[in-house]
Each structure stands twice: as structure tokens, then as C-alpha cells.
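Newbie here. two chains, one complex. Structure please?
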Amino acid sequence: DAKTTQPNSMESNEEEPVHLPCNHSTISGTDYIHWYRQLPSQGPEYVIHGLTSNVNNRMASLAIAEDRKSSTLILHRATLRDAAVYYCILRGYNFNKFYFGSGTKLNVKP
Amino acid sequence: AAGVIQSPRHLIKEKRETATLKCYPIPRHDTVYWYQQGPGQDPQFLISFYEKMQSDKGSIPDRFSAQQFSDYHSELNMSSLELGDSALYFCASSLVRMGGLAGGPAKNIQYFGAGTRLSVL
């Protein structure tokens, strides 16, 4: 299975944009890039996903490199409620395999 | 909107006892996944079911078993509990069938329950 690499932790100020990077150099052509986040003491929560084109939704934006070997989750204005562990996950056609990596712990400062 | 329901939320057991965790997926979802998250660790995939058939196994101990019933709810059965089994157990569900021709199940979103916290004493 293709693996992802994320920084262990990042810090942001409230109301500022946050760019969370993810490297996935062994991604295959059919792998979708998913982002989930886990707030303290809660189950993981879907954030966004994409295949090749950049994606926007009400929670975030996903910027995917042209070669698809990396992606960046963008939170446009971080709030204290965005403090969580963010996971970048590759999901292939074999839908049963869905592995979390180590994730990035985002700390948002007031 | 209905979410994934897990019960119980908390469970305390002694070593060598058995435990049964239940998961009720979002209505009309056809796939259920189980994950284990130890203290300070990331979620680890255990097992999944699609249309009541086991679809894949991850790092699930032989002491654990699971099934999905005709009403699509799933149960994770854990026997001969060990101290190391103390963890948060999450269930997730998704609708795979409608992924269909446009990218298949790879793009399907998993919706997670709040988890069951199992403590083995």
C-alpha cells in the first residue's frame, strides 16, 4: 500500500491560514487522497478528498501537486476548534484497505 | 442526520473475560469497518464487512471475531481479554455500492462513530 508522510506537529495562530502538507510519492493512479481529522476524545471526521484536481468544500481546500506525489490541506482561517490530529490517507480501489498514518497534530493558538 | 451508533460507550472488563462491541451504521450504508486506537496511537484497521460478508482483515488478533448481521449492524467479539486490549474501538460505515463506475469505492467517505472505550483490568 502506498504510504504517506506528514509532519508530526504544526502550530498556527487563530484566524490565520494553515497549510498541512502530505507526501505520498508512491501513490498509484487510482488512489484517492483523503483527509480526516480527529478531535480529542472523538472519532475521526472526514474533511475532504480528491483525485487530481484541487478541491474546495466548506471545511477546507485540498491542493494536489501536478505529479500527485504530494498534497496540501488548507484551512483558510484556523479556529480553536480546528485543533486536532489531521490524517492524510490514500484510498485505493481495494476499498477495504484504509490505513491511518501518523498524522499531524495541529495546535491553534488564540 | 443519523450517525454511526456504537454501544456501549464505555466498558470495563477483567483479564480473560469476553467483550462484545456493537455498531449500528448509518441507514442504507452497506459497509462497516472496525478500528482499534491504543493510548497515544493512531487508529489501526481491524476488519471490514461489505454486504454482510467479510471484505478484509487488518491487524486483528485471532481472539477477536466480528460479523455483520442482516440488518447491517455489526458486532466485534473479543475473547480472552488482555491488558493490551485496552483501547478505543471505532466503527465506521460507508456506502460503497454507489461509488459505482465513477472511481469505485476508493472515493467513498467513512463516517465514524464516537467509539467504545474498553478498559481491561
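Moderator note: DSSP finds no helices and nine strands in chain A. The beta strands of chain A are 9-13, 18-23, 32-38, 45-50, 55-56, 61-64, 70-75, 84-91, 104-109. Thread marked as resolved.
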